[in-house]
Structure formats: C-alpha cells, structure tokens
Amino acid sequence: MQTKSKNWFLRHKVLSIVLVVLLVIAVAAFIVMRIVMKSAEGLAYTFVRTTTLEKTTLTDSVTVNGTVKAGQDASVTVADAAKLYKVATVNVKVGDEVKKGDVIATLDTTDLLKQIEQAELSYSDTLKSAQTSYARAADDLTVEQVKHENTLIDLQANIDAADKQLYEAQENQKKAQDNYNAAKSSRDNAQNDYNEATSAKAKLDQYYPTATAQVQQAQKVVDEKTDAVTKAQNAVDTARIELDTASAALTAVEDLEDSAVRSQALSNFTKKQGLYDTAESELDAAKLALSAAQSDLTTAQNSCAIPELGLTGYSAVETAYNTAESKIASYKSALESAQVALTSAETTLESAKKTTESAEKALKSAHDAYDNEKNYSSLKTRAQSVEDAATRLSQSSRTPSTLETLRDTLNSCTLTATMDGTITSLNATVGSVCSGAVATIQNTDQLTVEVTIPANSVPNVSEGMACRITSDAASGEIIHGTLVRIDPVANEKGTFGATVSVNASDAALLIGTQAKVEIVISEKNDVFTVPMDAVDINDDGSYYVLRCTGGEGIAMTFEQVPVAVGDSNDYYVEISGAGLHVGDVIRSSANLNEGIESSSALSMPGSSNSSGNGEPQEAAIAFTIEEE
Q: Of 473, 497, 522, which marks where a domain is finished?
C-alpha cells in the first residue's frame, strides 16, 4: 500500500508540490492570524468602532446648491420701427394665462396705413411700365428670330452639300489608297523576287568563277592529252605502215642468195619494228595521260558544289548560275513595271488627297458661316434687350424694401404672446409710447434649478443623470429631476454652471427660492457596505475585514474575513464574500492601532515586533520545498 502511494506521488510530482505549497500557506496564514490575535491581546483600547452588516443602497453623488427658476420665459417687445407709435389697446393684465399668438396690445397705425397706400400705388406703376417694356422687346426678338432661322436653313443646306462632296472625295481617296497599297505590294513583291535572285547570283558569284576556272583548266589538260593521243595514234599508224612495208620488203628478199640485201632488209625491218613499238608505247602513255586528265576533269566537275544552296556538281552550279541570270533579267523587268504602276497610283492618291482637303475646307467654311449666323450679333442684341427687360420686370415684381418695411412695421404694431404661460409683468398703457419689454411671460409648469458644480466634480457628472431636489419651501420633500445642461467653460469663480430640470409631477417648488440638489452618479441596491477604513489589503493583494467573534465593547475579539470590493463613494465601499452575513459586526477600521491607549511588546523567536516607532511589524515566514 505504501509502495502504491509512493508511486502515485512520483507520477504526480507537480501536483504534489502544489498541494504541499497550499498546505504550507494555510499553516502560515493560521500562524500569522494567531500572532495578530495574540498581539491584539496585549493591546489596551479606549474605544472600538463597529458596523453591523445589512443590505442597503450604495450611492455616489455630488450635492450642490441653486436657485429655482421658470423653465422657460419670454419678453414681448416692440420692434424699433414701431417704437414711435402710441398704444391703442391693452388686452391682458398681470396674472392672466395666455397662449402663443394671443394679442397682448395694439399700436395706433393710422399714419402708417397712409404710407403703405402711397407705396403700393408707386409699386403698381413701376410694375406696369416694366411689363410693357418686356412685351415690346419680346416682339422684336421674335421677328429677328424668324429671319435668323430662315438663314440657318439655307446655310444648313450648304453644309449638307459640302458634306456630301467630302464623303465622295473620301471614298475616292480610299479607293486610290487601296490601289496604291496594291501597287506598292506588287512592287515590294517584285523587289523581293529581284533581291532574292540577285542575292542567289551573288552567292553563285562567290563560287562559280573559281569552279569554272578549275573545270576549264582540267578540260584544257584533257584537250591537250587528247591531242597527244591523236598524235601518238598517228605516229603508231605511220610506224605501222612503215613496219608493214619493211616486213614486205624482208619477205621479198628472204629467198635471195644475196645476204647483204637480205641483211639490209632485216635491219630495216628491225628498225621499223622498234619505231613501231616505241610509237605504240608512246600511244599507251598518251592514253594513260588522257585517262588521268579525264579523271581530273571528272574530279573537278564533281568537286564543284555549293552546299548552302543545295548544289552538287559543276553541271548543277552552271545550270543554277544561268537560271539566276535569267531570273534577274525577268524580275528586273517585272520590278520596273511594278514601279511604274506604283508611281502612277501614288500620283492618283496625292490628287485624291488634295481633293479631300479641298472638300474639308469647303465643309469647314460652310460650318463657319452657319456658326457665324448662329452668333448673329443683331439677334444677340435683341435677346439681350429681352433679358434686360426681363431683369427689370423681375426687379419691379419684387416688393420694394420700403413697402416691405412698412408692412413689417404694421405687423409689429400688433404685439402677441411668443409662448404659452402666465403674464408676470406688464408695462403698457393706452396713449403711451412703449420702450423696452411690454410684457414678461413665464411657464410656471416647467421649473428648473440653476446650480454651480465644483471643477473637481465636473468629470464625474454628465447630462442625463438623475437628481434629488430638496427645498425649505417644499417642506423638505424630495423632488426628482434630471441634469440637462453643464456649461462647457468655467465662470469667474472657477465653477461650472448647470441646469436641472424638475419633473412636471414634482413641481412643489417656488420660483426664486433656494434649493439643494443631489446629482446621483451611481446607485447600487441590496449590497453590503462598510466604511472605507474597514477594508485592508494583505501582502498578496487580497482584501479582508475584521469580524467580531466575541466579547463586548473594547474587549471584542475579531477574525479576518476575505472579501471582494466593488463600487464606492467618498465614505463607503461595497464588499461581498461567501463568509459575510446580515448582522455580522465588522470593525469600522481595520487598523488595529485605532483606539489604542498603550501597547505591550509582541515578539517572535529571533525577531522584534516593533519598528522603533511603536508600530507593529509583520511576521516574515519563509517556506522551502525540495523536489525529489
């Protein structure tokens, strides 16, 4: 069993280490808590503040003072142009409820109506004169337009004719261009043929003369050897005849007893036989020489070749050379004919181009004439006259500023309410001249509180936040409102003006009285809250509070309870945790020095609990874990 346990720890070495660390930390926390509680046992307190936990509301707010004002007010005033006229009637009194547009008072307009009548008569006369001038100018323009349009018809016909001539000229030019292109193509083809033949002959010229000279030289040797063979054959034939003669002579004297004659005939025969043999030998040698020369001729003829032209043998080269000369002559003649045709086509094309250019100029001239007529200055002058007359008519149709001013003044002589509300002041009597505000109207159903907010609180508030309003005039009743405006710039005192609107249903306020406004930044319900000093932080960053575990008054004992902190205001902070319950008594200050009358020494083996200034020191505990 022990072996299995040991094997498990070996297999889960990292997990084992973590468990050991957690165990050591728990033991250390218990020791530290015991030290803290023992140190507390050595302290004497004069007081201990506590807070009993209960579910409550945590509110963060800014409280400011202000003055109650009407949500909207307006003044009824007399326009500057109507200030000289006396009051004719007054239709309201202070305290009356009015609607927007209700008549407050009227002014005497007898003289003003006479001025308006005279101005309207002058306006009518000027308008009639402008209408007559416009009609006359329009008639003159109509006549001029008819003449102008008839001329444009004729000029358009000229454009159409010129356009047709240009089209025909362009078609002829196109045909001439096609003929020229065809003639140029033929000339270019002929030129290419001639160039190819010339190039081929040029390549033959590089080989043909040398080959011809070699063949001719070999042929000359053959001819010479042929002549030598002929001469040798003639010599053999002559020697044969002489030998036959000597042989006949020897035969004729063989029976003679005269040995001298016989001996002479035999000697002659022998000599002729030697000459004959010599002649035949020379003939054989000549034939051999001729055969060698013929072989050399054949070799010379066969060795003559132009591989790049695919020619082998003197006969092929000679045929190609003669053919090239024949082609050059033929292509040259064709090239000359094609050049003549091209020159003729080019002449025809140039003539067609000139005809086209002439037609284009004629068409442009026709268009220019048409455009000039379109911009006919007389017609322009007539049109300008109509435009000027129309401008004067338009100007005359507009109501003169003097008449408009008189009419506006007439309208200003009836003073009306600019909003719904109550008349709170009135400064008008029949027969008097009004100056300044005639009446003041206020809306008492929509109140506001004008407040000032300190500069350091402005970043925390924003328009739309809910407000709670209290006032002595409202018997301390809480009235609800909304922050609707914050000045973007501070006033001379460094504070910011702001407006709080009062809910219509909570209008139990009096205009002009002072009020206190609580601007609610945030509000959280059903949470535990404690004084901010009640929460402290451990070295590892976790938060805790001290909860009473027994005793009463200054003899209370406490324990650490881990908590999480949430929202806060200037005095309280939200806490939460599984160990918290309604009714828990929490020390209001986690600082154990608060309320101390004296302290006794708290020591640990090998260390001191005091820093020398009377403040307790934290105990330091080190843990070491060795890995197998």
A: 522
